[in-house]
Specification:
The protein has helices at residues 12-27, 33-47, 83-91, 143-159, and strands at residues 53-59, 63-71, 77-79, 95-97, 115-123, 126-135. By secondary structure, it is of the alpha+beta class. The chain binds methionine sulfoxide.
Amino acid sequence: MFNASPLSNLPKADQYQELLVQAQALMAGESNHIANAANLSALVMTSLPDLNWVGFYFYDGTELVLGPFQGKPACLRIPLARGVCGMAARTRQTQLVPDVHAFDGHIACDAASRAEIVVPLIHHGQLLGVWDVDSPVPARFDQEDQRGMQALCNLFLQTLTVSALIPEYTTP
Ligand code: SME
């Protein structure tokens, strides 16, 4: 509809299967979170149909701070008390929002966004940030997307040297 992406013609489950293979290859051998976050954002933005914003916010111990992303410039910092991102971080639950206009407190970074999915990034019990994906198509994301996005996030988390991301982090 909005863009013809390489995986548009595949069933959704196959899109994520393919993405997981590609993401694994992209991140293999790299543990830098900025490098992997940047490439994962670019991979998803250019592979899946009907997205207008894809990227990361990382938790600095107080609030969520903008990380690597694809799309229009976005708000730099999000308190945990605000927005879909704050909700995902606070509750540690993936937020599947079919209509952002109906979500109380939604932060509109791109006026084109109509649906959103935000996955919390939790590593050994610690909040590292969130993965945020927006679409201009209402109800763009479903349970299949939730499973796929969470799988991509798990792959990302497995690559991390977390001590580089959170100075006070200690491996359990
Ligand atoms: N919509 C998000 C803010 C981030 S932008 O979508 C990139 C929110 O409500 O938290």
